[in-house]
UniProtKB/TrEMBL annotation:
PANTHER family assigned: ENOYL-COA HYDRATASE, IP11341P-RELATED
Organism: Streptomyces hokutonensis
One Pfam family matching this protein: ECH_1
NCBIfam families: PRK08290.1
Family per record: Belongs to the enoyl-CoA hydratase/isomerase family.
Name recorded for this polypeptide: Enoyl-CoA hydratase
Length: 269
């Protein structure tokens, strides 16, 4: 162990040239409030700047990787919400943060267990590799709320167009096994081996030359960007925001009520 630094929402440590970043709100299934996301971005920046760190490992405390956005924490009262406020807040914490994490010039791995819902996808998809526990489930049920998909719209790239449409149209979860078959997940392991397997993979990568790792990541990401990934993520973000605009036209902003109900049901699982 070479370094540790914890906050309430995020735990950070460096072990064998691997920066381990842990989501630390298990009591709410690692729902993402503004404080957590800001602390998470700070942890990514710290790992990127530390010359001793060669690999970044992202994990979550508790039964679930992440239940997505914690809307109770960050949103104004329904009668005070404007589309301008939503667009500004989500541009920063969702679009800007996730694209920055995706382009950190060091390999990154997400270790995912339990539920990974909507905004949870925005934490694991920017990572280069995903190791999933056998009980992991990935879903984006926001079509139920009148929105076409979560803000970081990696669905088509991660799942392929037909599978992406299927999970969005139906709201169902993709199992770890399914995710591995379509290439979204690199490896599926027993739940009790998730941390060990993810760390072993990180250490294996950390033995490679830093410059070679940087160039390999850049080559793959640039190839995706030439195909339109970067432009698509930004343009589809605006499509997402029209869902909020539509919801604002309905009295009481029902999206919040529906999402709150989902969170409460998850706590009972």
């Amino acid at each position: 162990m070479t370094d540790t630094a914890d906050t309430d929402e995020i735990l950070y440590e460096v072990d064998s040239k691997v920066a381990v970043i842990t989501l630390n709100r298990p009591e709410v299934a690692n729902a993402q409030n503004a404080v957590l996301l800001d602390a998470l971005d700070a942890a990514w920046r710290r790992a990127a700047a530390d010359e001793e760190v060669k690999v970044i490992l992202l994990r979550g405390n508790g039964k679930h990787f992440s239940s997505g956005h914690d809307l109770k924490d960050r949103w104004p009262a329904p009668n005070e919400i404007t589309l301008e406020w939503i667009y500004g807040a989500e541009s920063r914490r969702y679009l800007e943060y996730t694209l920055r994490w995706r382009n950190v010039p060091k390999p990154s791995i997400a270790a995912v267990q339990g539920k990974c819902i909507a905004g949870g996808l925005m934490l694991c998809w920017p990572c280069d590799l995903i190791v999933a526990a056998e009980n992991a489930e990935f879903s984006d049920p926001v079509v139920h709320m009148g929105i076409g998909g979560v803000e970081y719209h990696g669905h088509t790239w991660e799942l392929g167009p037909r599978k992406a449409k299927e999970i969005l149209f139906t709201g169902r979860a993709v199992t770890a096994e399914e995710a591995e078959k379509v290439g979204m997940v690199n490896k599926v392991v027993p739940l009790d081996q998730l941390d060990t397997e993810a760390m072993e993979l990180a250490r294996q990568i950390a033995r490679m030359p830093s410059f070679g790792l940087r160039q390999a990541k850049r080559a793959v990401n640039q190839s995706l960007d030439v195909q339109g990934f970067y432009a698509a993520i930004q343009s589809v973000f605006d499509i997402h925001e029209t869902g909020h605009g539509n919801a604002l036209s309905v009295s009481g902003y029902p999206i919040l009520t529906k999402l709150d109900g989902m969170k409460e049901r998850l706590k009972e699982q």
